[in-house]
Amino acid sequence: MYLVLGYKEILGFEKRSMQESENDVQNQVKRRDAWNHRGPVIFSPLFDWPPRPKAFVLALTKRWVTLSRNGLFLFLAWIVFRYFLQDLSSMQSLSVEWILPIFLRNLLIMTVITGGLHLYLFTFRAQGKRLKYDAREQLEKGGKFSFRNQFWDNVFWSLASGVTVWSAYEVLYLWALSNGVVPSFAFLDHPIVFLVWLLVLPVLTSSHFYLVHRLLHWPPLYRRVHRLHHRNIQIGPWSGMSMHPVEHVIYISSVLVHFVISSHPVILLVHLYSRCLGPAFSHAGFEKLLVKDTAVVDAADFHHQLHHRFFECNYGTVDAPWDRWFGSDHDGSDEATAKVREQRCRMYRGKPPA
Asked: Who's near 67: CB < 8 A, 6+ residues apart?
């Protein structure tokens, strides 16, 4: 019962009297389901059959050589590694002298990138509602949020919990690296391995995200942990990392692969940035960022926007087709919406919410 009530709250279904006419109900459904903008849901061609080698190569490489969030993360990781990381010899023992600068740097990066997106899209409304998926205004207020305000709720959980857990993983890796506990390689000695890591990361993180996301929708974990993130129905940049601390630990845990497989600090930083800064883009609510009428960079994806609207779908990302393989994909069509509602009806053994 608690889960049914939780889903109704999350999905925004208002109590209706028994006397409401069927036409009125249907009109409310149409208004709620209307999109201001619909983007394509296209999975990576990496797993297409028959194979498409050209599309496969382009998909793997363009994310790193074009103006994109991934290119930004790679550039930022190199800058931090080259100019801001202290010498490893100073990290052999845990001390505030080198841990605090890491936390403050991550706090600044999160604030600048996530806050910058929020200011551009929602405060200054620099592109209005052009390419905005959800027609409704963002953000909400109400008792379900900390401070009774979605914006401050999202900022608090992103910074207080998100940056702390992110920094803890980074500190743990650097401490282990400085003490020779984890394997690593030099870029000049193994540039091909460095490149392979970049190509593999999207599939690795997408697969991990699908698995842990399905776990987080397990009723006990959902009620106690993941529900905090799903308070955000109308999402924005700060919604992406607004999570319970336990969810932050689980969500970012894919970086533990670098503790067992030889890697490089730049790769570790790119991985962390994709996990901790990437959600600001994927939850931005706009398909692309526009400067005047020119699209300069991809922002959110319709695939994850649909998850926040319909909940029981699109647990992963388009970088690996786990949703397609396990039948949990939603491509934005009316047919897919009907399918999701039928599934929800079977889950709760009753009439699905309209």
From this structure: 296, 297
Locate all alpha helices (DSSP H) within 69-163, ordered by sequence.
69-79, 96-118, 150-156
Q: Pseudo-torsion of CA 263, 265, 269, 271, nearest 10°?
A: 0
- What is d(CA 110, CA 249) in angstroms, rounded to the nearest whole number? 17
Q: Phi/psi of residue 244, each to 5°?
A: -70, 145
Q: Per residue in 291-300, is it b (16+ CB within 10 Å) or e — as a string?
A: eeeeeeebbb
- Tell me which amino acid residue 85 is: L
16 contacts: CB under 8 Å, gap ≥ 6? 25
pLDDT for 67 equals 77
pLDDT of residue 16: 36
Domain boundaries, the chain: 36-307
Containing 27, the helix (H) or strand (E) segment is helix 22-33
Residue 283 and residue 299: Cα distance in Å, rounded?
Answer: 8
Q: With CA atoms as reference, report the closest residue to 252 among 166, 126, 194.
A: 166
Q: Is 306 left (phi over 0), alpha (psi -120 to 50) or beta?
A: alpha
Top-confidence residue, 70 or 343:
70
Q: Is the pTM of this model over 0.85?
A: yes
| Short-list 86, 105, 67, CA closest to 265 | 86
Among the listed residues 280, 351, 11, 296, the one whose alpha carbon sits nearest the alpha carbon of residue 127? 296
Tokens of 41: 């849901």
Looking from the CA of 8 toward its CB, the CA atoms found within 13 Å total 15
pLDDT digits (tens, 9 = 90+) for 216-260: 999 999 999 999 999 998 899 999 999 999 999 999 999 999 999
Residue 132: pLDDT over 90: yes
Confidence of residue 138 (pLDDT cuts 50, 70, 90): low
Mean pLDDT throughout 42-68?
Answer: 83
Q: Do residues 116 and 169 touch, judged by C-beta distance below 8 A?
A: no
Interval 292-320 mean pLDDT: 93
Nearest CA among 225, 279, 228, 233 for reference residue 252? 279
